[in-house]
Amino acid sequence: MADISKRFGLRHLRAAPTSHIRHLRRGQLAHDGAGIAFWFRPLIAALSEVPVDDRELAMLFHARTADFQDVTVQATVTFRITEPAAAATRLDFSIDPGTGIWRAAPLDQIGTLLTETAQQHALHLLARTSLADTLVNGVAEVRARMAEGLAAEPRLAETGLEVIAVRVVALRPEPEVERALRTPAREQIQQEADRATYERRAVAVERERAISENELESKIELARREEQLVAQQGTNARRLAEEEAAAATVRTESEAGRRTTLAAAEAEALRTLGAATAAAEADRLAAHQQVDPAVLHALALMELAGNLPKVEHLTLTPDLVTDLLGRLTR
Hints:
Blueprint: E1 3-7, E2 10-14, E3 19-25, E4 28-34, E5 37-40, E6 45-51, E7 55-64, E8 70-81, H1 84-90, H2 106-126, H3 131-152, H4 154-159, E9 161-173, H5 175-290, H6 293-307, H7 318-329
Antiparallel strand pairs: 1-2, 2-5, 3-4, 3-6, 7-8, 8-9
Helix pairs in contact: 2-3
């Protein structure tokens, strides 16, 4: 919007660099250009302000495909007024000399023109395309068709408009149709997820089975080694018993041999002693045979006396003496 100030009954206009100002004084062109500033009299002046910067126009409209399905088209058109003089003569860009505000809504008229033109070409294309093809390739095709249609529209060129770019943001079916179309894909994704889950569970079960088999093999190996240990301990115990039995046998045989040798020596000693005793007894008897009987009696008495116990007191009676003397005489 132009900046208009009041001084001494006159008006001063200062335009923005992106605004093209046309000043008509009594029907004659007095000023024409972008970003200009000048004094004017409001009673005899006619002012127009045409924006020459790039403008974005967002549009949203509905269309129907070849299979009678409604889709929503969301697009953006970038345009610019390249011929301000033509635009000012075809559309009402006049501004109030006192406030600088547009008297009409020229940009709304341009937006309606662009929207209806673009919509016409998009509807014509979508009406011959199925919903599936529209959702797959429709964005590029609709953008190209809208750009071609806007570029070929003669009214836009006559109005001084130039379409710089066309962007199609989205092509969406109705929510129910969109959910129905998403269902197979979601089911497939869910199946893939379930299959991945099952495969992950299968891998986990396989790993658990491998772990269980390893534990079982470890237990079997441990039992086998325990069996070998028990067998080795039995063999060692049997060998120890055999060694102890052999040692006991050796000790027994050695002790028996020792005792046999000792018994033989003792028997030999006894035989020798008996023989010596017998020989001594024989010699003694032989000597006694050659001695006088009285001497023998005396020796016997001596022997007897030597073997008698000690007598402290002895009482001799006449009968005892008589008997003893009688025996001695005999």
